[in-house]
Amino acid sequence: MYNKTYKGRRLCLLKQRIAIISDIHGNSLALEAVLSDISHRGINAIFNLGDSLYGPLDPLGTFKLLMEHNITHIMGNCDRMIVDSSDNDSSSTINYVKRSLTIEALDWLQQHSRSLIIDDIFLCHGTPHSDEVYLLEEMTEEGATLKSSKDIINALEGVEQDVVLCGHSHIPRTLYLPNGKLIINPGSVGLPAYIDDLPIPHKMESGSPHANYTIIEKRSTNWLFDQISVPYHWEKAAAMAEINQRQDWADALRMGRF
Fold it and tell me: Where residue 230 sits, what CATH number does that domain have?
């Protein structure tokens, strides 16, 4: 658990088209394609839910691309790992990322809040209380299953906003709760599948190599949402991973599954 950081910000949400991106993971090729797609859709604001630069691809190029756009960012668990790691960290990928990034980029990561409130929208990476816990999915021996509405409502205790944006699982989802809250996970821009050991060994697979993001728009009292899948040169991204000896990433980038 970490101390939550809330920053209230006013934004007239009515008829605003908002692009939600998350889990870029240093994939500058996927990010470039997503930002290009966003530029043609009349978007008023872009929110980034974290895990921007971690990965064996192009962390510095990703940072430079993000700096070219007006985007609201929060910190993900992998962002925090980069910031908190020592110079002799045992993770080869973290060491690669830190060697690649400038002091400016590392300072930029460190400045991000863990969560944000923007009008009636709550932004977090995992849950409001942890950037390492999935808000919508529960891990079992059979794989990822959707949590009960009761468990999700309990995880959102204290959150007053009607719309909650979360990332971390890399799986695009939209969920409507009995209490009227709308939960949206835009999926991952840059890593469509991965394998993790915690809380138990499991795979997260989107099933497609496309870069994912979501557009939301408020019409009167209702929210419209559109889950977008963008093609890009994923073979080139996979080759980057192979150069950095991460065949698991290369496989995930090519297929969106293992």
Answer: 3.60.21.10
Structure tokens at 155: 């995880």
Is residue 184 helix, strand or coil? strand
- Indicate whether 4 belongs to any domain: no
Task: With H, G, I as helix, E, B as strand and everything else as coil, classify residue 232.
Answer: coil
Type of residue at 235: E
Question: Distance between CA atoms of 249 and 200, rounded to whole angstroms?
Answer: 20
pLDDT of 51-88, one tens digit each? 999 999 999 999 999 999 999 999 999 999 999 987 66
> Which residues form the domain of 70?
9-255
Helix crossing, 28-39 with 59-67: angle to 10°? 20
Q: For strand 163-165 and strand 193-196, is the pairing parallel, antiparallel, or unpaired?
A: unpaired
Contacts of 224 (CB under 8 A, 6+ apart): 216, 217, 218
The answer to whether 166 and 155 have CB atoms below 8 angstroms apart is no
CB 185 within 8 Å of CB 123: no
Cis status of the peptide bond prior to 186, with omega within 30 of 0: no
Q: Is residue 29 part of a domain?
A: yes
Return the structure tokens found at 106.
């590392």
Q: Report the number of distinct structural domains present in the chain.
A: 1
AA identity, residue 217: E
16 CB-contact burial (10 Å; exposed 0-12 / middle 13-18 / buried 19+): middle
**189, 73 contact by CB (below 8 A):** no
Kindly report, residue by residue over 184-210, the tens digit of the pLDDT. Answer: 999 999 999 999 988 889 999 999 999
Residue 251 lies in a domain: yes
